[in-house]
Design goal:
The protein has about 220 residues and is α/β, with parallel strands linked by helices. It folds into two domains: about 80 residues, Rossmann fold, CATH 3.40.50.20; about 120 residues, UDP N-Acetylglucosamine Acyltransferase, domain 1 (3 Solenoid). Helix content is about 15%, strand content about 30%. The chain has three helices and 24 strands. The strands form four sheets. It has an eight-stranded mixed β-sheet with strand order 6-9-12-15-18-21-23-24, with helices on one face. Strands 7-10-13-16-19-22 form a six-stranded parallel β-sheet, with no helix packed on it. Strands 3-4-2-1-5 form a five-stranded mixed β-sheet, sandwiched between helices. A hairpin with a 4-residue loop joins β23 and β24. The termini are far apart. The relative contact order is 0.11.
Length: about 220
C-alpha cells in the first residue's frame, strides 16, 4: 500500500485527501502544515503530525512513500515544493486522480499533479508537475497545463492550447482552441478567452480583457 502524506490542511487539502481515498493512490497516513492552528489534530480523520520540517523525518524513516502538496494557491504550492526539496532532495511526489476523472491513455501527468472529481484530460494532453485540475474541469486534446498551473472547477480549455507555469484559469472560464496563456497570469472566473494572454497579467470578462499586470506570488484566492 502506497503511504501518502498531504501537505496543507485547508479546503483544497481535504479535496486531495478525498480523491486519494476514493482512488487507487494509496492510504493518506499523515498531514503536515506550517500554518495549522494548534488545536487542529486531524483533517478528515488523518492526523496532523507537524509542519513541513516533519516531512524529512517521515521520509528518511520510511514511514511514507510519497507526498502531495494540497495547497490551492499556485505560487504558494510551488514555494512549498521548493522548500520540501531543500529539506529532502530525494523526496518523491505522488500524483492523485479521483476515480471519476477521465484521463486519456496517451495523456501525461507530472509528479505531484492533482486531478479532482469529474475532470477530464484529453488525448496527448500534458499536465505538468504540481498542476491542478479542479472538479469538472476539462483539458482537451494536445493541450499543455504547465508546471504549477491550475484550472478552477468547471473550467473548459480547448484543444492545442497552452497554460503557462503557475497560471490560473478561474471557475467556469473558457479558453478557445489553440490559445496561449503566459506564465503567472490569472484568467478570472466565468471569463471567455478569445485571444492569447501574455505573462503576468490579470484578465476577466466575456470576451476577456486584460485589467492589470500581476507579479509572481501575488495572491489571487
Amino acid at each position: 500500500m502506497h503511504r501518502l502524506m498531504v501537505i496543507g490542511a485547508s479546503g483544497h487539502a481535504r479535496c486531495v485527501i478525498d480523491a486519494a481515498r476514493a482512488g487507487s493512490t494509496g492510504e493518506v497516513v499523515a498531514v503536515a502544515d506550517d500554518d495549522v492552528v494548534p488545536t487542529a489534530r486531524e483533517v478528515l480523520g488523518v492526523p496532523v503530525v507537524g509542519g513541513s520540517d516533519s516531512v524529512g523525518e517521515w521520509w528518511s524513516e520510511g514511514r511514507i512513500d510519497g507526498v502531495v502538496v494540497g495547497i490551492g494557491d499556485n505560487d504558494t504550492r510551488m514555494v512549498v515544493v521548493e522548500r520540501l526539496l531543500a529539506i529532502e532532495p530525494s523526496l518523491r511526489f505522488s500524483t492523485v486522480a479521483h476515480p471519476t476523472a477521465s484521463i486519456a491513455a496517451s495523456a501525461r501527468l507530472g509528479d505531484g499533479a492533482v486531478v479532482l472529481a469529474g475532470a477530464s484530460v484529453g488525448p496527448q494532453a500534458s499536465v505538468g508537475a504540481h498542476a491542478l485540475l479542479g472538479a469538472q474541469a476539462n483539458l482537451d486534446h494536445d493541450t499543455v497545463l504547465s508546471e504549477g498551473a491550475s484550472l478552477g472547477p468547471g473550467a473548459l480549455i480547448g484543444g492545442a492550447a497552452r497554460i503557462g507555469c503557475a497560471s490560473v484559469v478561474g471557475i467556469g472560464a473558457v479558453v478557445r482552441h489553440g490559445l496561449t496563456i503566459g506564465n503567472h497570469s490569472v484568467l478570472g472566473a466565468g471569463a471567455v478567452l478569445t485571444r492569447d494572454l501574455p505573462d503576468g497579467v490579470v484578465a476577466w470578462g466575456a470576451p476577456a480583457r486584460i485589467q492589470r499586470s500581476r507579479e509572481p506570488g501575488e495572491r489571487y484566492l
